[in-house]
Design goal:
Elements (H helix, E strand, L loop, with lengths): L1 E2 L1 H4 L10 E2 L2 E2 L14 E2 L1 H23 L3 H22 L6 H11 L11 H15 L7 H11 L19 E4 L6 E5 L6 H12 L9 H19 L6 H17 L7 H7 L1 H11 L6 H35 L5 H11 L12 H8 L3 H13 L3 E4 L6 E4 L2
Antiparallel strand pairs: 1-4, 2-3, 5-6, 7-8
Helix pairs in contact: 2-8, 2-12, 3-4, 3-5, 3-10, 3-12, 4-5, 5-6, 5-9, 7-8, 8-9, 8-12, 10-12, 14-15
């Protein structure tokens, strides 16, 4: 069993039982006597770590092979998806269009502006800040800046500082009067010391001579459970915790890594909640690492699919850019805008008419031509006929 406790230090906390509905609950991880000495069986996760290193390197290589235009497009799509999904995990739904506008603004693109929606602006600013800070030492000031950016415009909570309220910081679900406490974080008075120790650990060297690259996925998983267990802010802990995981990956690999972490978590949020709750009741985080490495793999595969889609898009316009008329190109560009997941519901003659602003006869003729050229495949028949990109 590999122990990371030497990196973090030790702290003796006397465990006082917490009761809920007159039932004795298990202690939380921070109440255990050897907190925060996380431990895990490295032989169980060795294969997943090696696989992660390979996937990240392969995807980054493909991304670097894109033209500047398509690299920018892929980066923007990845950042927007991360910003939108990390908010959705917390039950906050922001406009993708507003987030896109703010991301483009932050990247310095012309004809773009910061959204007027402070929630969309905050989601975009957090992913941009955490990406720009990827190779800087972690600090209290950095985390507070992230918190300020994320929750800008929120007047109900203290921005850019650790929580100070005397009430317990609890993660609760259920209707009023039927609440279920999933987790209770350390008291506010202990947060400054806990966060100081976390920051010292984070900025330390990899354990047991493990290379930074191979250690990156492990550190990404550990910093998330460590940060979420302290829950240092009044709000925004989940989103900042995921941003920290992204930062840890990038530092280890030596460049900003694009990984669809939040989209992968949001797709199976119940599994995330269950894994987090289990990990916060023990210091043996082997199961948590297995779970989180699986999530990272799903995120990387999503990014890989996004990059491959962009490569296909670039190849398509190289091949057909001069052989299609402007009307046909306009429709195909619109289909490509939907990303690698495809045009929802497929492309019908009616949708073609709406995009190209042409009569039905022209739309039908164009669709048949694009099918004959091997660009579109036919799905369904009769009134249900739809077309999908083959390329």
């Amino acid at each position: 069993m590999m122990r990371l406790g030497a990196l973090i230090g030790s702290k003796l906390i006397i465990f006082e039982p917490i009761t809920l509905d007159n039932r004795l609950t298990m202690p939380y991880n921070w109440q255990l006597h050897d907190w925060p000495h996380f431990r895990f069986d490295d032989s169980v996760i060795e294969h997943e770590v090696i696989e992660m290193v390979h996937l990240v390197g392969k995807t980054h290589g493909m991304y670097e092979g894109l033209t500047d235009q398509f690299r920018d497009e892929t980066l923007i799509n990845a950042l927007v998806e991360e910003a939108v999904k990390t908010s959705e995990i917390e039950g906050e739904y922001v406009s993708r269009k507003d987030v896109l506008s703010s991301v483009r603004h932050n990247l310095g693109f012309e004809n773009s502006h910061h959204s007027d929606d402070h929630r969309a602006r905050g989601a975009a600013d957090l992913v941009m800040l955490s990406r720009s800070d990827w190779n800087k030492p972690l600090s209290e000031q950095m985390l507070h800046a992230w918190h300020n950016a994320l929750l800008q415009g929120n007047k109900d909570i203290a921005l850019g500082r650790w929580r100070t309220h005397s009430e317990p910081m609890q993660v609760i679900s259920g209707a009023l009067g039927q609440e279920r406490v999933h987790f209770e974080a350390p008291p506010s008075r202990e947060v400054p010391g806990e966060m100081s120790r976390l920051i010292d650990w984070y900025n330390g060297k990899p354990s047991h001579g493990v290379s930074p690259m191979k250690y990156a996925p492990i550190k990404s998983a550990l910093v998330h459970i460590y940060f979420e267990s302290i829950h240092p802010y009044e709000d925004g802990n989940g989103r900042i915790g995921r941003a920290l995981s992204q930062k840890a990956l990038s530092e280890g690999f030596g460049y900003p890594v694009m990984v669809g972490l939040s989209p992968a978590i949001e797709a199976k949020k119940k599994e995330y909640d269950a894994a987090l709750m289990e990990a916060q009741s023990t210091l043996d985080v082997t199961s948590w690492l297995q779970y989180f490495l699986g999530v990272l793999k799903e995120g990387i595969l999503t990014t890989d699919a996004m990059v491959r889609f962009t490569l296909k898009k670039a190849s398509f316009f190289d091949t057909y850019g001069e052989s299609l008329n402007e009307r046909q190109l306009k429709v195909i560009r619109r289909v490509f805008q939907e990303g690698h997941s495809g045009f929802e519901g497929g492309l019908s003659a009616r949708k073609y008419m709406a995009i190209a602003k042409c009569p039905k006869a022209t739309a039908t003729r164009d669709l048949q031509y694009l099918h004959q050229q091997g660009i579109l495949r036919v799905v369904g028949a009769g009134r249900s006929t739809r077309y999908e990109l083959i390329y």
